[in-house]
Structure formats: C-alpha cells, structure tokens
C-alpha cells in the first residue's frame, strides 16, 4: 500500500473498505459493535461495489479496480468505485447514441456497442412530438430508416432481462438529424428534430443563421473510448481544456452518448472533419491520462489540425 | 520499470481495440505474453449459461499451431480464473480471454509459460473492469539439488534456501557451508535452471492467501531419475516452499499489481 500521497489510493478487487464502516448505521436498538451483523441501512452502493457476507471488515466488496468515490455529507451517502473500463456498461438514465438495426411490430432493435446484445426501444417509450403523445398507436408509430442514429436514454437495465431497454422520453431525445438535412428532406415524417444537448460555439452563438445558409454537410459519428467520453460529457471541468481549444477555432455541435459515440456537426464538411480529427488524435494519444488533463496535448493537436 | 531484477515489465492496454490488454515480460526468463480481454460480449447459444458468464480462454502458441499443450494451459487458466471472476454479475454473456505467447525460451515447457500467462491475464482482467472477487498472483519456484554445481546466473533475491525463514538474498554459493542437504529454491527460473531442477512448482495465491492453483512436477534431470514413484519432492520441503510462495504472491505480487495500476488515471 505504498501509494503516493497526491493520488488517491487504488482499490483492488477484494480489498477491505474499513472507511465505509461508520456509514453502515447499525440497528438502532442494538449497540453491538461487531461489524459482521451490521447491515448497510442508508449507504447506497454505486458501480464497482457489491454486498458480500464474507469480506473481512465490512460486508461490502469492491469488484473492480479504481478509486473509492464516497459522498458522505449528503442525506443518503453513496459509495462507488471510480474506474474507466473501456467497455461500456449501461446504467439507468445514461444518455446514449444508438444505431437502428431493425424494426419489429412493437419495438426498435438498436445497437449500443459493437459485439453486445442489441438493446430495444419499445414504441410506447418513444415520444414523438412536442405534445407528448406516445407513439404506441399504430398510425402514429415512428417510421425511421434502418441505420438511423437515435439519441435515447437507458430506461431499464437488469442483468437477467433479455436486453437493455431504452426510452426516448421527450423531444430533446429522438432521431439525430443534421438541422440542414432535415430542411431539405422535410417531406419525410421525421419531425423530431434533435436539439443538440451540448452545443459549443466560438464567440457568437450557433444561431439559426449559421446553420441555415450552409452547404450540404454530413455529420460524423465518432467512436470514442470511455475516458474520452467522460471527458467530453464533463464539458465544464474535465473537457474544458480540449473543448474550448477546439471551439476557439471551429464552431461545432456535438451530442455525446455515454456508450462511446459522439455525433459531431459543424457548418462545413471541412470543419466537421477538423473537429473529428482533434477528438480522435486526442483520444488515440490517451491525452486524458496526462498530468495536466490533456491541456498541452489538446492545444498542440488543435494547432496542428485547425491551423494557427 | 526495470529497477528491480524481480519486477516484471508490464505494459497496460497495448492493444487499442480490446477492452483490456496487457503485455508482461518475466524479469528472469524473458518470457513475454500478450493478453487481451473482451467482455461481457454476446455469447454463442450453445455456450450460454443462464446464471453465469461464460469464460473462454484461448492460448495462442508462439510457434506452430495450438495443440494439446495450449489446451492444457488454457484449462489451467480457466479453472484458476473461475474462482476469481464474479461470473454471476453478467449472466448469459461471454468473457473472452486471448493469450498470445510472444517470446519464450522454451515454447514446449508448461511451467515456464504458466506463471507469466496467469499474471498477465489477471492484469488484463483488472484493466478490462471484469468483476472479480479478489486478485491473484502466480509464482514459479524450482527446487534444485543441493549438490547441483551448475554455474547458472541468477538475479539478486531470486534464490533462497528452504531452511532460512527470511528468504530473500541467500546466495547459492553459501550452501556449501551447510552440512545438511538443503534444497535451494529459485523463483521464476529460466529454462537453464529448470533443466537442473529436482522439481518445479507453480503456485497461485489470492491476495487473501487462498491457494488457487498448484501445478507441481518432478523434473528427471535434476534428480537423476532416482525417484521413480513420482514423489520427486519432500512434503516438508513443499510446505515450506508453499509458505514462501504465499508470501511472494500476497506481498510482492499484489504490490506489483498496485504499482502497475496506480500509474493510470481514473476518473
């Protein structure tokens, strides 16, 4: 356990977690001090932790390596193991970008990540318009082309269920279409324009004017690693060095799915490619692992790709 | 990384497309293994288990095509990992482990390959975030005849005698002052030392000191074929050896894992 003091201690699977003992409030009537019969009353276990009766000091077993993330000051304390495995493990309420594989009588079959069992979006989970009516009725059923990209939310994850269930709960979710392309193919019934959840712009806001008068642009869907995805989602903290560096050169819009897919749109095709290259090179260099959070590397890449 | 002669060279995630990968070079025998772990993946229907994840271990040989030896290695790794991985966390899925032997002194020797394979696999499982009950580490110990006069080279701290409890820095040359026949143990031997050995023991222990794997074999070269009954080692020697192996796995091995993973940023 000779970890350096500046970095939090790495927890290995099976490590005892004595620091969690005070949070496991013992039954109020008994004053037994033995930790074996204390049950976690109020502590919420996040990813990476599970209950196990056999662990030495607390009945909580870490099953992944990482650092312990403990919020004990809130009303309901939570503990989890922070780690960034490359594989995406769906958890409820995660925003994801999925690809439509096929449509059945009751649901869309979509893909979350390569080589994993497909996820489903039941039609009753698909809210199609601003009025909030569901698409369960046959005539109002959404008609999406195979291969369409859908921005959805993870609704149900259970390890014993057949597949992960997603939902499109409100108009901020739905099929992801480039604003430009929608206006050109407005005859189709794809009215659920996706207002991008994360829009970064340099200087002036990406108003309607910049989008309306641009030429035909195909947005890009970039696959990113899990650390990179976390970085892009945390746009105000972790991702700020990179995102502001890119946005100072190229205004762009992006939608980040936690499953490691990022939808990138900009005013010209060249700019789309530039943003994609910046993200890709940053990711491939594993710059998030740098001491400065990728600040220097991000600047260097942006300078190289977008010019001075 | 090569500060100590007994610390293996570990490179984490050398393969960009796999969920977790590791390249491991044994410090003394220079056996190099590359493993990749992917999972949980979609499982083939015939391998599907209703309540557990299927663990698949594929060992790819450094030379030639895979045969019985690789099947044997993969079944040993599989049975060791079965008790480490919490397979009930991802039912009806597949955890696929592929181990490639990159470099080895002797591609036909099971004991020389097994320890690097196991250690490398455990590191890549950790990196891949596969749910595990605990962490294990493996060590290979070769028992040498006391009178074997081979002038082999060993690293500092690689050799210890079974009599002294502390172990550590016993030098092979010190054995001549000892009248009693004291077995000399070399940890992670190379093929030259293994050739002189009386017996070879691959031991795997979990962090808590549970024994996960014992793979012992008698080597005819060192013993000169004197024990035909298959008992090439003494049980008291073996118990001492196991004690030392446990110490190496639980203290040094776990320290190596912690140091290797501690370099990585987690957020």
Automatic annotation (TrEMBL), chain A:
Domain of life: Eukaryota
InterPro entries: Exosome_RNA_bind1/RRP40/RRP4 (IPR026699), KH_dom_type_1 (IPR004088), KH_dom_type_1_sf (IPR036612), NA-bd_OB-fold (IPR012340)
Keyword RNA-binding: yes
Record field: compositional bias (Low complexity): 17-53, 178-190, 197-206
Signal peptide: none
GO molecular function terms attached to this record: RNA binding
Source organism of the structure: Arthrobotrys oligospora (strain ATCC 24927 / CBS 115.81 / DSM 1491) (Nematode-trapping fungus)
Gene Ontology biological-process annotations: CUT catabolic process; exonucleolytic trimming to generate mature 3'-end of 5.8S rRNA from tricistronic rRNA transcript (SSU-rRNA, 5.8S rRNA, LSU-rRNA); nuclear polyadenylation-dependent rRNA catabolic process; poly(A)-dependent snoRNA 3'-end processing; TRAMP-dependent tRNA surveillance pathway; U4 snRNA 3'-end processing
Protein name: K Homology domain-containing protein
Keywords in alphabetical order: Exosome, RNA-binding
GO cellular component, one term: nuclear exosome (RNase complex)
Domain K Homology: 225-269
Span list, region Disordered: 1-53, 177-206
UniProt subcellular location: Nucleus
Automatic annotation (TrEMBL), chain B:
Sequence ranges assigned to domain Exoribonuclease phosphorolytic in this UniProt record: 9-131
Keywords carried by this UniProt record: Exosome, Nucleus, rRNA processing
Main location per the UniProt record: nucleus
Family: Belongs to the RNase PH family.
Coiled coil residues, start to end: none
Protein name per the record: Exoribonuclease phosphorolytic domain-containing protein
Cellular component aspect of the GO annotation: cytoplasmic exosome (RNase complex); nuclear exosome (RNase complex); nucleolus
InterPro entries assigned to the protein according to its UniProt record, in alphabetical order: ExoRNase_PH_dom1 (IPR001247), PNPase/RNase_PH_dom_sf (IPR027408), Ribosomal_Su5_D2-typ_SF (IPR020568), RNase_PH (IPR050080)
